[in-house]
Write a structure and sequence with these properties.
Layout lengths: L6 E5 L6 H9 L3 E5 L8 H5 L2 E3 L6 H11 L3 E3 L7 H11 L7 H8 L1 H10 L7 E2 L15 E5 L9 E3 L5 H9 L7 E5 L4 E10 L2 E14 L5 E8 L4 H18 L5 E9 L4 E7 L8 H8 L3 H11 L18 E8 L7 E3 L1 H5 L4 E6 L16 E9 L2 H14 L1 E3 L16
Parallel strand pairs: 1-2, 1-4, 2-3
Antiparallel strand pairs: 5-8, 6-7, 6-8, 9-10, 9-12, 10-11, 11-14, 12-13, 14-17, 15-18, 16-17
Helix pairs in contact: 5-6
Length: 419
Amino acid sequence: MDLKDKKLLILGSNAITCSIVEAAKALGVYTIVTSWNKLEDAPAKQIADKYWDISLTDYNALLKKIKEEGIDGILTGFTDSYLLPYQHLCELANLPCYATKEVFETTMDKAKFKQLCRDNGVPVIPEYQPESFNPAIINEKNKVIIKPVDNSGSRGVILCEKPEEYQKCLDYALSFSEKKQVVIEKYMEMDSISLSYTIQDGIVSLSTTDDRYVHKAANGGSVTNFGIYPSKYTAAYIDKIDGLMKRMYQKAGVKNGVIAVQFFTDGEDFYVMEMGHRLTGGQHYTYTMMENGISALDCLIHFALTGKMADYSIATKDNAEFKHTYCHLFILGKQAKIARFEGLGYIQNMPELTHLTQMKRVGDMIGPDGTSAQKVLGLHLKVNDRVHLQKVFNDIKMHLHFFDEEGNDLMIDFNSDIL
């Protein structure tokens, strides 16, 4: 279906949301971005055809503008807290939404999602009940992770290694939870992988797999540093877990959209960790477009404007067993204000770079260690193999730097021992 000149309202205006604006424009769609952020603090507003200074939850004002402007569809991405306002606004405006309120509430809540997994035979990380948890069991061989049930982007997630640190860690995690509830899990010292699924009319297909490497903060928090596609555990995952996940989502009533999920694994056993029923910062659709000629972002735009993910069968195109190697590298920084960049032009001209997302610019504050707010750049790389990627990593570390006003280099070194 031709989407030319249809009008799409995009909820949210941060740097990564620019990718939705750019993809919609490439399809000939007229884009309008709304948020309460001022124009200078809203990169997506700066490139949209039009913008509104209206909060995502000011439903009366948004409905009025939606009718006046003749909006054909609404979309959001990347942030869990936007999903329920997105669903509610779609319902009020009688426009397509890729999931129901009930589905979002299940997939967004960590406790509800773990129970969904248990009910469907998907292995989960061993968990402790907060009400009866005894901190005395914490020791060097039995550390725990405490996380808010209702937050994303690694916000509020903290590693507790000693009994005497438990209350401080618990208070930290609770401070990030609107529900004032946490999940306490066994700390898993295993490899981490991420998967993405695309859902079309109830048919679930595996789109990507990647090996996930994390930066661990001193306070016990962690954030994705880079992911390498495809994962070295792809075949084992498909053999042992993929069928269980597809059946689980179908039974849960997931009809359309995208799913991102993370597992711990040693190659034999798999333990589900997190999921999101939305686009993620990994922007996996950039790799599926290069590899299989299909973009989940384009499909979501198509759904927002037509009520259908695509005019073709997505499952027949999806193939997570990539023939090429890709990497999404997040350049992380120390908490401070950025005064200048060095080598950014060099990076932008690297032949392996296929896309760059700049989350922080000169004058911006880098967020706390161990959270997604410390991501400065997102680099999408296409390489021959992991040996080639190692060389690209070394090249980036040699040329790219960013500094505070005192001249301190804020870039956090990333582990490039990936072979």
